[in-house]
Amino acid sequence: MSMKMHKCPECGIYTLEDKCPKCKGELKVIYPPKFSIEDKYGKYRRILKKELRSKNESC
Predict the structure, then answer these.
(1) Pairwise CA distance, residues 18 & 51, whole Å
(2) For the residues 44-57, what does the mean pLDDT come to?
(3) Residue 7, number of CB atoms within 10 A of its CB
(4) Model pLDDT, residue 50
(5) pLDDT per residue over 17-30, tens digit each?
(6) What pLDDT sits at residue 59?
(7) Strand pairing of 28-29 and 6-7?
(8) What pLDDT is recorded for position 46?
(9) How many CB atoms lie within 10 A of CB 41?
(10) Residue 51: CA atoms inside 13 Å, Cβ hemisphere, count?
(11) What distance in Å separates the CA atoms of residue 59 and residue 43, rounded to the nearest whole number?
């Protein structure tokens, strides 16, 4: 068992277990990725964010 907090996207339950104790579903890690000055994918993330923002404004 890892010592990272997980959240079940189905139930919304937070746990340290590997599977959801309520629905036995897959869990997601709730911590953000580590920050790095040498961000390899930052350029692509900013492009995607800009495209999503312009798409939401046009709707």
Answers:
(1) 35
(2) 91
(3) 15
(4) 94
(5) 989 999 998 999 88
(6) 67
(7) antiparallel
(8) 92
(9) 10
(10) 6
(11) 25
Cβ–Cβ under 8 Å, residues 17 and 27? yes
For residues 50, 53, 54, 59, the Cα torsion angle rounded to the nearest 10 degrees is: 160
Find the mean pLDDT for residues 20-45.
87
Which of 38, 37, 39, 57 is closest to 49 using CA atoms?
Answer: 57
Q: Give residue-wise pLDDT tens across range 7-16.
A: 999 999 999 9
DSSP, collapsed to helix, strand or coil, labels residue 5 as coil
DSSP states along 14-49: EESSSS-TTT----EE-SPPPP-SS-TTHHHHHHHH
**26: its two tokens:** 């897959």
